Amino acid sequence: MKQTILVAEDDENIVDVCRRYLEKEGYEVLIARDGHEAINRWKNDKPDLVILDIMMPLKNGLDIAEEIRFDDDIPVMLLTALGQEKDRLFGLSIGVDDYITKPFSPREMVLRVKNVLRRYEKSGKHRDTAFSFGQYRIDYNMRSLTKNGVPIEMTVKEFDLLWFLVQHESQVFSRSQLLEKLWGYEFEGDTNTINVHIRKLREKLEQDPAHPTLIKTVWGIGYKFEGKATP
Fold first, then answer.
1. 44, 152, 161, 214: most buried by Cβ count inside 10 Å?
2. Roughly how many angstroms between the first and final C-alpha of the chain, as a whole number?
3. Among 79, 84, 69, which residue's Cα sits nearest to residue 112?
């Protein structure tokens, strides 16, 4: 199965070079030409590695890298210009795996991609795609939640919300953060949307929805998951 590389860059010449050289090495290449598209492609297409230009329309590469690193452990590389040492140092401080300085050698870019992916594979890092907690099992690839093996019906957003909370067990998220993470920057609804989805999840998961033990309210802040989930 081909590994997928997301290249987020608004310069068509650089996009063309990256695509040609990476495809020649057998990678599938996805392209995003602004920050919002980059976030959507990362969330929806699940690439194996992301290459981000720092200076992009709508949202810069450093902000995107920070968001990816908050939610995911996939390799992230930065495309930087000469003289952007401050940006490179910030990128490395938030966990960016490598950077490529423009103008760059396409062959060096390919070698850096291979090296980062190789380090990632040797480290044993991977995305957990299923978790168990109590009588429940949630499986991302199957998009399913079961209780003692029996499927529980869920809407798309109910599943996404539960999966996000399970992945970030014990972390507290405000309603606004959950809206941004799961509905995206373009969503114009209010935070009551989260309350409704939390209530529905509790009705499906909790023995006593009025006194939840899995999805807990942190008063004045938001919600957190406390289910002792294991991969």
1. 161
2. 24
3. 79
Q: Do 22 and 72 reside in the same domain of the chain?
A: yes
Tell which of 90, 123, 156 closes a domain.
123
Read off the tokens for 85: 């040492």
Q: Three-state DSSP class for 80?
A: strand
Q: Which residues contact 81 (CB under 8 A, 6 or more apart)?
A: 54, 55, 101, 102
Round to whole Å and give the CA distance between 185 and 189.
Answer: 11
Question: Backbone phi, then psi, for 227, in 5-degree steps?
Answer: -115, 5
CATH number for position 41: 3.40.50.2300
Question: Is 212 strand, coil or helix?
Answer: coil
- Residue (of 25, 13, 164) closest to 5 by Cα position: 25
Same domain, 139 and 102: no
pTM: 0.58
Any domain includes 231: no
Domain count for the chain: 2
Tokens standing for residue 39: 């976030």
Q: Rounded to an integer, what distance in angstroms lies between the CA atom of residue 162 and that of residue 44? A: 17
Quote the domain boundaries for residue 57. Answer: 4-123
Contacts 24+ apart (CB under 8 A), 70-73: 71/167, 71/181, 72/42, 72/127, 73/125, 73/127
* Each residue's pLDDT tens digit, 100-137: 888 899 999 999 999 998 887 765 555 667 899 999 99
